[in-house]
Please model this.
Amino acid sequence: MKQFTLLLLLGLLFTSCNNEKVSNMEHTIDALQKEVTELKAQNKLLKDSLLTTNVESRLLNSQLIGSPTEGKILVNKENKINLRFQEDWRLPPYDVYQIIENGEKITKKLLLKQQTKPFFEITVFPKNKKDNETKLEAVFDFDGNALTIPAHMNYHLE
Model:
């Protein structure tokens, strides 16, 4: 009987020690899972930041190139001009504005909204031979910060 009681006590002692070890391991596993989740979130933020920086850098080094659809631009006629970014990749959304200067007053007229293709088309209607330029801006929004790519086109009118 003494041996049985001794074995029972040793078994309970061993079981209680193992329960404590298991409990400690469960807490450690929970803490490690939380840490992994936090690290994954930080990694995603860093990847997004690098991607945004890369896109901004590529855009800052790009140009808008325009050419008339018909080969020439005529006075008192609606003319179409094709514009494209020099790089051929899907862009983040951007808006296109025409810059209108009237003396010292400068206004922006929204022409196209939420474009993503590297090309677009605008229409110009020159009223006389002195009306031979168009100024545009492609504006990208990066988390509330505007990145502007200007375009200034002078053309010979017929």
The longest helix spans residues 2-60. Strands lie at 64-68, 79-85, 94-102, 105-115, 119-124, 133-142, 145-154.
